[in-house]
Design brief:
Blueprint: H1 3-19, H2 21-27, H3 32-50, H4 60-82, H5 85-92, H6 95-107, H7 113-128, H8 143-173, H9 181-201, H10 209-233, H11 239-245, H12 248-261, H13 267-290
């Protein structure tokens, strides 16, 4: 097996692990805020132990970006407990919509006409999630509020991506061309998410072995091991190809929740998700053509 083939498999496995988050979050008997705290706490320890790069290059910038990522992690968990997994992952994928707006403001990036067109497509997809009223079900008891939290996670995810670009630019300016600020921000974000939620997560109460196994799986495998594969895979796969392979996550996420919980997203949500993911693929392709040597950022993996 060639290094490129192995790297592709690592990225696909990482995306598959990321994709199980929605179903597993819904399965744990802990409250949403308890899942958010425990999952991120376990993930922070596991990432720091498994990935040496996560222990290097910390700075105040790492904490700032980590705070944006922490907000994404917490919003993702809380949204999953209120609305469907499909709605949560698709609405979080609206990050490119906010990047077009925030990039020029925060990083002085130029807006291209094709970016505005794709922003329009993503905006239409976003609106479709709020067309009509979804019926509350056991795994999605408050779809309207959950959709709002998921949409907010798209904004915080966009801020995270902008922050990662800022970190990378700072590292290059300092001459640290071998640094990996993305994975340090992942560790910092999980640590911040755990500590921020902890006061509301206590006391934990009595829970069975299965519930602890679920949050342990979420922290160790769904986040830490997945990022271990991502960091390994990105060394041998171009940014565009890596981004496309990692789209396995939003594609599989609703399927796991359907298989485990019988959860079926609404028709408007499916159409909106297709528009959002389609626009994301096109934007990634256009960005890769204009900057073929640009490294891939951190994977979604909330």
């Amino acid at each position: 097996m060639t290094a490129r083939t192995r790297a592709r498999l690592q990225l696909v496995v990482a995306a598959m692990l990321f994709s199980t988050g929605g179903a597993a979050i819904k399965a744990a008997a802990f409250s949403g805020v308890q899942v958010a705290s425990l999952r991120s706490g376990i993930a922070a320890v596991a990432v720091l132990l498994m990935i040496p790069a996560a222990r290097r290059g910390w700075s105040w910038r790492t904490l700032v970006v980590g705070a944006a990522y922490a907000a994404t992690l917490v919003l993702f968990v809380l949204a999953n407990r209120l609305t469907t997994s499909a709605n949560t992952i698709f609405l979080q994928s609206t990050g490119p919509l906010y990047l077009v707006v925030l990039g020029p403001l925060l990083l002085h990036e130029r807006v291209r006409r094709q970016d505005l067109a794709l922003m329009g497509v993503v905006a239409i997809g976003l609106v479709l999630f709020f067309v009509g009223a979804e019926r509350p079900v056991g795994t999605a008891p408050d779809p309207a509020r959950g959709n709002l939290l998921a949409a907010a996670s798209g904004l915080t995810w966009a801020l995270t991506l902008l922050g990662l670009r800022w970190l990378s630019d700072a590292e290059r300016s300092a001459g640290h061309t071998d640094a990996n600020p993305s994975i340090a921000a992942v560790a910092a974000g999980n640590l911040i998410a755990c500590l921020a939620c902890l006061p509301w997560a206590l006391p934990l109460g009595a829970h069975g072995v299965a519930d602890w196994a679920i949050v342990g799986y979420l922290g160790v495998f769904q986040i830490a091991v997945a990022y271990l594969f991502v960091t390994a895979g990105l060394r041998h796969v171009p940014a565009f190809e890596a981004s496309v392979l990692l789209l396995v996550e939003p594609a599989l996420n609703p399927i796991w929740s359907w298989l485990v919980h019988g959860e079926v997203p609404g028709a408007w949500a499916i159409v909106g998700g297709v528009l959002i993911l389609g626009a994301t693929v096109v934007k990634t392709w256009l960005d890769a053509r204009l900057a073929p040597l640009a490294p891939a950022a951190v994977a979604d993996g909330a």
